[in-house]
Write a structure and sequence with these properties.
Oligomer: single chain
Distance between the termini: 14 Å
Shape: elongated
Structural class: mainly beta
Helix content: under 10%
Largest sheet: 4 strands, antiparallel
Number of helices: 0
Strand order of the largest sheet: 2-1-5-6
Number of domains: 1
Strand content: over 45%
């Protein structure tokens, strides 16, 4: 059994018990989170495809960690013009463990 979900503008293929790192989801460590944007659900030969979403599939995850990724350095420069600009960015993320995928 697996499902394809959409969160943070990205799509993830998940199964029960998976640990997945997604864009930041509000909540504290240990909280339960319900993911509603389910695009596809498959169990054996039974495949349900949303147009665009499935409303009868329930996915529950637990927040394991809230963190920030390594710094990405953005450096811009125009040669012979004396222009250079250096910026840094750290993206926030949430690590989830998928507890339950169920069809209602």
């Amino acid at each position: 059994m697996y499902a394809v979900i959409r969160t943070g503008g990205k799509q993830y293929k998940i199964t029960q018990g998976d640990t997945v790192r997604v864009e930041k989801v509000l909540g504290q460590v240990g909280d339960k989170v319900e993911l509603n944007d389910v695009l596809l659900y498959a169990e054996g030969e039974k495949v349900l495809l949303g147009k665009p979403l499935l409303s009868n599939v329930k996915i529950v995850g637990e927040i394991l960690r809230q963190g920030r990724a390594k710094k990405v350095v953005v450096f811009k420069m125009k040669r012979r013009k004396g222009y250079s600009k250096k910026q840094g960015h750290r993206q926030s993320f949430t690590t989830l463990r998928i507890k339950e995928i169920s069809l209602q």
